[in-house]
Specification:
Elements lengths: L7 E2 L8 H14 L7 H14 L3 E5 L2 H11 L5 E4 L6 H8 L3 E4 L11 H7 L4 E5 L10 H11 L2 E5 L7 E2 L2 E2 L6 E5 L12 E5 L2 H10 L4 E3 L2 E2 L10 H11 L2 H19 L5 E3 L13 E5 L7 H10 L2 E2 L26 H9 E4 L7 H13 L4
Parallel strand pairs: 1-15, 3-4, 3-5, 5-6, 6-9
Antiparallel strand pairs: 2-10, 7-8, 9-10, 11-12, 13-14, 14-16
Helix pairs in contact: 1-8, 2-8, 3-4, 3-7, 9-12
This protein binds pyridoxal-5'-phosphate.
Length: 374
């Protein structure tokens, strides 16, 4: 390992120049309005509706509380069918609502929930489906909606990876009953911590806004055991500033994606996920699958990358269904999730962020190419 090169992490937050943030802070200091639907909060909701192409958005303090509140808003109970191949917050939001997660297997090409497996997992207790647009690649939205309509189920998308993703019909966030975003520091668009629920009508948005403010509808009325999920003015202001650079950031991510794909094409045993065919992707992640004809195991390659200062991550390993609070559930059985297990045992997410330089990409490709020789 060359000790002089600083480590390359899997992601780096998008940070605009500090001096551009100062005027926003001055406004907050002047108005003394720090949180509770302040001017920057309102402005960010409006601006995001326009940018994303959605009708209603409600900002949250983070994506996990947005998921928890989305389930509460739709009064989901009983069982919800979801994917084991995601970040643990997806299933945790169900447990926080006293809902039983039922894991269904994923599609081997997209690594998103497989609609056929969803249908097979439905029981009389099933009330909703919670799919994830994994890595920002849209789920099979039409098939999922058909199942939901047939069985009278709600659909809540964990869209934490899908900021700005569009298909032929526009924003993927307009599908299902609700979509939930995360604006965590590691995501494509961040507000340090943050999140949002996208919904389709003003009445639902109002209900969600009550739920994120303890359930208050006015000074003296509380209609539900709501949580404190409000985004502060500082976070909202940072979001507005960051939005100015988002198009450039997405463009840079796209260039990185292309360079990786070209480099990986020559490496035997390394499989890149298919380009998703969206009209607008966000290149949030760059997952590779390390297959049996690669000379090293996935974990050996992961370690080798680490030893060379490349801090790639095994997203998503372990599967959610393997964590202690889930693994006893019947749907967590290994035999129920063979495709997800295989993906979790092969995947490595490579570094991708706007400031990743071409020479760093070439280094990463080279380390993977030559790892078999060592
Ligand atoms: C990041 C993430 C979350 C959680 O969002 P936070 O804003 O960190 O709470 C939920 N689901 C998925 C798939 C994520 O990647």
């Amino acid at each position: 390992m060359n000790q002089k090169t600083p480590p390359i992490y899997v992601t780096q937050p998008l940070l605009p120049p500090l001096e551009e943030f100062i005027p926003y802070l001055q406004k907050i200091w002047e108005s003394k309005w720090l949180t509770n639907d302040g001017p920057f909060h309102q402005q960010l909701e409006q601006t995001l509706c326009g940018y994303l192409g959605v009708k209603h958005i409600s900002l949250f303090t983070n994506g996990t509380l947005a998921l928890v509140t989305a389930l509460q808003a739709l009064r989901i109970t009983g069982e919800v069918i979801t994917t084991p191949y995601s970040f643990v917050a997806t299933s945790h939001s169900l447990l926080w609502n006293g809902i039983r997660p039922v894991f269904a297997d994923i599609d081997p090409i997209t690594l998103n929930l497989d609609p056929d497996k969803i249908e097979a997992a439905i029981t009389p207790q099933t009330t909703a489906i919670m799919p994830v647009h994994c890595y920002g690649h849209p789920c099979d939205i039409e098939a999922i909606q058909r199942i939901a309509d047939n069985y009278n189920l709600k659909v809540i998308y964990d869209a934490a990876h899908a900021f700005g993703v569009k298909n032929a019909h526009g924003s993927v966030l307009n599908h299902g009953d609700l979509s939930v975003l995360s604006f965590h520091a590691t995501k494509v668009f961040n507000t340090f911590e943050g999140g949002a629920i996208v919904c389709q009508d003003a009445k639902t948005k109002l209900h969600i806004d009550h739920l994120k403010n303890f359930g208050f509808v006015d000074e003296v009325s509380v209609v539900a055991p709501g949580i404190n999920g409000k985004m502060s003015e500082i976070n909202a202001a940072f979001g507005l500033l960051q939005l100015k650079g988002i198009e450039e950031a997405l463009q840079k991510r796209k260039t990185i994606d292309t360079r990786y794909r070209e480099g990986m094409a020559e490496i035997k045993g390394i499989h890149c996920l298919r380009e998703a065919g969206e009209t607008q992707a966000n290149y949030a992640y760059f997952p590779i699958l390390v297959q049996p004809d690669y000379p090293k195991s996935r974990d050996a390659l992961y370690q080798h990358l680490h030893d060379n200062g490349i801090h790639a991550r095994r997203y998503f390993y372990p599967l959610i269904s393997d964590f202690p609070m889930y693994r006893g559930m019947p749907s967590a059985a290994h035999a129920n999730l063979p495709v997800a297990r295989k993906a979790a045992s092969e995947v490595i997410c490579l570094p991708i962020y706007p400031d990743l330089r071409p020479c760093q990409i070439d280094l990463i490709v080279d380390v993977i190419k030559t790892a078999g020789n060592t």
